[in-house]
């Protein structure tokens, strides 16, 4: 059980010192960084170890859509040269990871898990990719998602179903399911995902890894294939909180190519990693403990809250009264923006084409045949909400409710430093369990979408597991641009608990 406070500070290091067999793929980046610097391992060795792990478990997990081992090894070799020359290396240099396949990579296919972008090779890198390349991080490949990031289980991918490494019959969550599954399976040390309504945090919770959705605008969206532009945000999925802070140091910051990116200065997030929540005011919103929440999830999250109290935090009960409108608000705004963003896939400017006898028929064929069912559902909902007769009744009203939801948080953050909640109302569920009921799937997003509507940062950290061994996530929500405080809270919690994020796929557990 991973719910109790145990004495396991730095358990990764202890395991290493204990002289047990060295499995490189199961460690967080900052530990591997120390091993690289101390020349205990080389970057090529590390990348090869992860590639070997991939050969073992990827056929079961199916996280990757495109593999780029030659790129990864080339980047690793460059890092080894630096080390051999006696140069200092930065923390993520030589540490291989994966990117959600909605993040553009120059020269490497970016499909968005859609047939319409089957052979799309971007002519440029997303800003975050450029930053990671410059930081010397080997790219292992591009990982699966729900088509255009629409979904919460990765089952909407046009290519394959990714399996949860903790139980291969279960979904990994979504839409960044490939990112979470790869990190949990040891087939990537870190991954990037995107979060429009929970797509980093919920799969992180389902796969037992750490997932951080930054404040809207903290990380550049340039080169992220747009789903709902006022909600989308890129962020890391990692083995632990320390790695999340390090990735944020690399990817956060203003970008002239994204006018919505924040000009405010980026702190060194690793400075926030002190195990101390004494006096921290923690809000507990009653609206997040919803009907239909699994008892085990609620129990694990409540236990985590008690742990925070035991560690010196002060718990304040609060109300976020408009939470009950969050799902309907999100499922008007997100599809409306999606309908607009996806207009560009017309068989002319981007991607694939299915011909027809005239222009209209060509566009109709292209969009009918190459978009998946869920994507088409969103386009229909979105265009309906935006149409002349219904704009005021639906879209405009949703925008007004969004403001009320934002106001709830502004009020709450007058009283507290962070807000604690479950990341999702359930643990991972069986593949196929919800595909026939999209509405039920939408309701799963109740704990995550409010943050996107309000633009707030949130992190999911593992806080226990169910009786059947599925991970449970605790969500820590912060004030705008205050990633530092949620990182500190998450780090403090993590340091006091024993858990490993690697799933028992013929590998280590515990
Ligand atoms: N499940 C939500 C949706 O389907 C969130 C997806 C996301 O964050 N990309 O829209």
Task: Show the helix and strand layout.
Layout: H1 11-17, H2 29-37, H3 43-61, E1 64-67, H4 69-84, E2 97-100, H5 127-134, E3 139-143, H6 177-185, E4 190-194, H7 201-207, E5 210-213, E6 234-238, H8 241-251, E7 281-285, H9 295-310, E8 314-318, H10 326-341, H11 359-370, H12 373-386, H13 391-415, E9 418-422, H14 438-443, H15 449-454, E10 458-465, E11 471-478, H16 483-495
Parallel strand pairs: 2-3, 2-4, 7-8, 7-9
Antiparallel strand pairs: 1-3, 4-6, 5-6, 5-10, 9-11, 10-11
Helix pairs in contact: 3-4, 6-7, 8-16, 10-12, 10-13
The structure holds glutamine (GLN).
Residues 149-152, 175, 195-199, 227, 334, 445 line the site of glutamine.
Structure keywords:
disordered N terminus; about 40% helix; 11-stranded mixed β-sheet; globular; binds glutamine; about 500 residues; alpha/beta
Could you walk me through the main structural features you see in this protein, from its secondary elements to its overall organization?
This protein is of the alpha/beta class and 510 residues long. It has 16 helices and eleven strands. It has an eleven-stranded mixed β-sheet, with helices on both faces. Strand 10 and strand 11 form a beta hairpin. The chain is globular. The N and C termini lie close together (9 Å). The structure holds glutamine.
